[in-house]
Write a structure and sequence with these properties.
With 441 residues, the protein is of the alpha/beta class. The protein folds into two domains: 74 residues, no CATH class; 352 residues, Aldolase class I (TIM Barrel, Alpha-Beta Barrel), CATH 3.20.20. The protein contains 19 helices and eleven strands. Helix 14 crosses helix 19. The two termini are 26 Å apart. GO terms for molecular function: catalytic activity; iron-sulfur cluster binding; metal ion binding.
Length: 441
Amino acid sequence: MSALFARNFEKNLKMLLFLLDFVAVHPDARDSLRKVKWYYTHEHSLYKLLLRLSRELNHNAKKALMEFILNAWFLNKKIREQFREEEGFNPPQLLVISPTERCNLRCEGCWAGMYPREKDMNCVLLERIIAEAQREMGISFFVISGGEPFVREDLLDLYEKFDRTFFMIYTNGTLIDDDTVHRLAQLGNVAPMLSLDGFETETDARRGRDVYRKVVRTMEMLRDAGILFGFSTTADRLNVDIISSRDFIGHMLDKGCFWGWYFHYIPIGRDPDPERMLLPHQRNELRQRICEARRTLPILLVDFWNDGPQVGGCIAGGRYYLHVNCSGDVEPCVFCHFAVENVKSRSLREALRHPFLAEMRKNIPYDGNTLRPCMLIDRPWIFRDYYRRYRPYPTHPGAESLVGGLTKELDKYAQGVAQILDRVWENGDYEKIVHVPEEEM
């Protein structure tokens, strides 16, 4: 079925939705299907995104995307339900893995800049992690981070080996050449996310001279090859107005991006600086701009913090995802550089059972305001309590500053955010990633 609709997705979309009605048995799958039907009948911006996907992606990318949807919504449900019955909690939806910390750039304020770079994760361990997550948890979506993933050419062979798995790759975009683009076009199951910090001035100031030009050229190559890709950006006090502007998002559309991920600067990694964090009013304004843009533009925009209501709060601790770093440490979140288990000596299933992670999952969403989902910057006293009780080890030098030297600044930030976002929450002035009226579903 995936190959059939990959060949003529737009023409057969209505038939596809009809056929999926017979396959979608699980309540979650039926809810997702109802939403897609609503986008279709109301010609929502996400429907326009679907049309873009059908027109602009090459055959391999459309086929891989359809297989991922079928796996995630339908085919892996039994595996996930069996895990829940055996363990008493849901398995993660996705897994983030950093198979290398090597990088050809040295970006200012890099969140991963303090991890050891000496050794890559070996392929045997990497394949074991992916196979275990697929087999025991029904995970079909993996995010590959770093470091710079494209310093490892062997990862392309990994993506080919796991051809029924979908990989999102966070990359600085400077190492993707013509040969790599050709290989990605053949694979179809790999979606690069290229990092920018704004336009040329902002990006080159943080990443180095000519980086912006190289990344934009890479986007054009990916676009022309029909590859699914997007952009990622980190909002800080200086660039937030630029990266959330219609000009910037429109520019990303012109270059062929299908989605964009917005992260907020957190004082971790290389040279952590609380003064770079968004001011509370900037965070709320970013939320409003992103909500408006995705109502009208055919691109999927996700704000990792402000979209907490979409997923019921924090997704860390294995509730929705985990991060396995290059050394094999199982971290609750890519921004929480602490661990109690390592996949070299424990399975993922065993790591998820540890009280350090189980307690996180149990307590979410805290007081209910999921616009303040984060235990590191929105409610830092919560993570400090976990740290005191379970004594996780820092996974690189300096990580413990979140529970040490930066506590005063983080508490001050959290109080400022609460003053604004508690009022927003009480007034109901917030929106999920895509709002679908209940009465029309």
